[in-house]
Write the structure tokens for this entry.
Amino acid sequence: MGNTYRIGVIPGDGTGPEVVAQGLKVLGAAAARSGFSYELITYDIGGERYLRTGETLPNSVLGELRELHAIYLGAIGHPEVQPGILEQGILLRTRFALDQYINLRPVILYPGVWTPLRDKKPEDINFMVVRENTEGLYAGCGGFVKKHTPDEVAVQESVNTRKGVERCIRYAFDLCRRQQRRKVTLCGKTNVLTYAFDLWERTFQHVAREFADVETDYAHVDALCMWMVKNPEWFDVIVTDNLFGDIITDLGAVIQGGMGIAAGGNINPHGVSMFEPIGGSAPKYTGKDMINPMAAIAALAMLLENLGEKDASRLVENAIKQVVRDDLQSMDAGRMGHTTAEVGDLVVKYITEN
Ligand code: IPM
Ligand code: MN
């Protein structure tokens, strides 16, 4: 008998519930094949609950999330809720409260998936972005002076702690070694952000000494954006701060085939981690059975890997590869040649048959 996992499910807003439903079908198939079991605890957190009750993430729910083995998130974001409330109240609050200090975002072009980079192939686009997930400009440090007057001032400071930076960089080096990759690139802005990235650079050098087998590199974030388009094959593992990581992973998503396929994990290596498709709630496709669930299914594969169910994770990943290569006409909503539910069924079919 395999392990039993308690998995929290937050379907959330917009297309979140539709894509999560496909991911859960896949979870069922993977569990049946691999012999683990699980209990799902579903939370109705999101825009609808906020509009109904004014609550974002109640403390009682946060307390329950702490006791789980993993969290599976669909999407957070509602057109009738002012921007920032749900993002900060739910997504960022969970990341911070559960100390999910790594945001791991693979940028991998699977065979058969269209990339806007004309001359690039799957062997050219295969790297991991390790984004710091609890500090930087996201820390909420700053404030207003003389707000709503002609003299108003807004200050928003980037918080970089030695501990926070070091654990993030160490995770990147460990990952590089674990995945038998070659090189870790620090992405910063040492020419302008001379305090924050001075700390990052010194810490990077310090940690690098423990990993003599791993090559190191540095790129300013602006140049790195250029190279991600021109020479993505240069990258293997990129480590960076919260905001730069946010920005470069949208660019990463588009070169790997778009939001339909891009997944990420908010990881606390010693606690509870949360996995999500990175594309958002896509209100205009809600309820139409048109959205691509592959990103959510890829997030599920990451969740399984994180639980230690490596075989199950590999099964799901291989099924994803097979579907995107053989069955999908496009990664874009409405152009896949299949409905959302059919894509989930295809993944299940290959897991069951393989
Ligand atoms: C992401 C998103 C979030 C972020 C938003 C929704 C707060 O863009 O997960 O990348 O900025 O981290
Ligand atoms: Mn983002």
